[in-house]
Design brief:
Elements: H1 3-9, H2 11-15, H3 19-27, E1 31-35, E2 40-44, E3 56-58, E4 64-66, E5 73-74, H4 78-85, E6 89-95, E7 99-106, E8 109-114, H5 121-130, H6 134-139, E9 143-150, E10 168-176, H7 185-194, E11 202-207, H8 211-224, E12 229-233, E13 242-245, H9 247-257, H10 261-282, H11 287-313, E14 319-325, H12 329-341, E15 346-352, E16 355-361, H13 363-373
Parallel strand pairs: 5-13
Antiparallel strand pairs: 1-2, 2-3, 3-4, 6-11, 6-12, 7-8, 7-9, 9-10, 12-13, 14-16, 15-16
Helix pairs in contact: 9-10, 9-11, 10-11
Length: 378
């Protein structure tokens, strides 16, 4: 059976979707055939009904459906959100600053899928180096490991954690392949402990009535220690989780975005400023604390913007250098091709002693700043 025939004859039943909707999604380019040396699959570039973006229907000896990771909504006011969203107790886990990855067994191969559904060669290799996954997938082939790739040598999101160092992995969910249903928090942690796999930190389980004050304190401490925030979960994982992040994390994101203002600035700015406003009110900032918060936001926006303008004025590109471990130049080239498949402009700056420096170029920022410097009108 051809892949197109499979989509028409089998996929509607497997995913419980109407054929007409699948065909329409395919025509629009939101559902595509995907192939590399690891896998052949149908890739959902956008969500379709209950099927999340990033879902992969993988071909081979067996059909494997790897559901996309669902978007986690954010609370701006903890007390009211938690009261209306949860019942009984909530589990609070640390939200870490890395790269969202799903790891699954697909026709004898353990593969790492990015949020969008692409198989990342680097993460696939590193996940197997960091963790012994064979026993887990031997016993639980129908589960998907959902986690965060972390560390200073993570070529997607570089962030320093003292317990991680250059590269590491932390697991926040175990989910069923076909349905995407998550395991309860305690069952997940018991399984991870059994197979010596690394979970994210569980910061506490609290009654809903006590949780807001506990979480505000936790998030303030996390932010002061350069950490991102929390994910708040129903212990049974029946209700969808919520996330809440620190002021320092918002500032870090703004600083990053305004290094490349014409690529990322607009998309990042409004939501982060809104978060800061609500957080200031809920944390009952004093005048002094509010002033400090305002200064941090302003500095996070203006300093990187000015630095980038000066950089481009000196005839340099607006770019960021990413570091990755690589055993061979071939491995580096494979990762560069993966980035290009994602639509990222990237070039190799240096490869020496098993470390590659890759420059990700933000072309829109480079071009627009140069245009304005030369007298172009805004």
């Amino acid at each position: 059976m051809s892949q197109k025939d499979f989509m028409v004859e089998k996929l509607p039943d497997i995913l419980d979707l109407e054929l007409q909707k699948l065909e329409e999604s395919y025509r629009k380019g939101n559902l595509k055939f995907y192939q590399n040396k690891f896998v052949k699959a149908l890739q959902f570039r956008k969500s379709l009904g209950k099927i999340e973006a990033g879902t992969m229907v993988c071909f081979g000896d067996e059909i494997h459906v790897i559901r996309g990771f669902p978007k986690i909504r954010r609370t701006l006011m903890l007390k009211e959100s938690l009261k209306s969203h949860f019942k009984g107790k909530v589990a609070v886990e640390e939200k870490m600053n890395g790269y969202n990855v799903r790891v699954a067994l697909v026709n004898t191969k353990i593969l790492a899928f990015t949020r969008g559904g692409f198989v990342c060669p680097y993460t696939t290799k590193k996940a197997l180096e960091i963790m012994d996954l064979t026993p887990f997938f031997h016993d639980h082939p129908d589960l998907v490991i959902c986690g965060e790739m972390l560390g200073t040598n993570n070529p997607y999101v570089s962030h320093y954690y003292p317990e991680i160092g250059e590269i590491g992995f932390k697991i926040f969910d175990l989910r069923e392949k076909l349905t995407g249903e998550p395991l309860p928090v305690n069952k997940k942690r018991e399984l991870l402990s059994k197979y010596s796999l690394p979970p994210v930190n569980l910061l506490g389980i609290y009654p809903v009535s006590e949780a807001p004050s506990k979480i505000l304190k936790l998030v303030k401490e996390l932010g002061e220690n350069g950490r991102e925030g929390v994910v708040i979960k129903d212990p049974q994982m029946v209700l969808p989780p919520l996330k809440y992040t620190s002021s320092q994390a918002h500032d870090d994101e703004l600083e990053y975005a305004f290094k490349f203002p014409f690529d990322l600035g607009k998309a990042f700015m409004f939501s982060r400023v809104i978060r800061e406003g609500f957080q200031s009110v809920e944390m009952q900032d004093s005048e002094e604390e509010l002033e400090k918060r305002a200064h941090r936001i302003g500095e996070s926006i203006l300093y990187p913007l000015v630095e980038t303008i000066k950089h481009v004025a000196a005839h340099e590109v607006a770019g960021e250098d990413l570091v990755m471990d690589a055993e061979s130049r071939e491995e580096v080239d494979e990762f560069l091709q993966h980035l290009r498949d994602l639509g990222v402009v990237a070039v190799l700056v240096e490869y020496e002693d098993g470390k590659a420096v890759i420059r990700r170029v933000h072309q829109s920022t480079t071009d627009k700043i140069m245009n304005y410097l030369q007298g172009g009108l805004y």
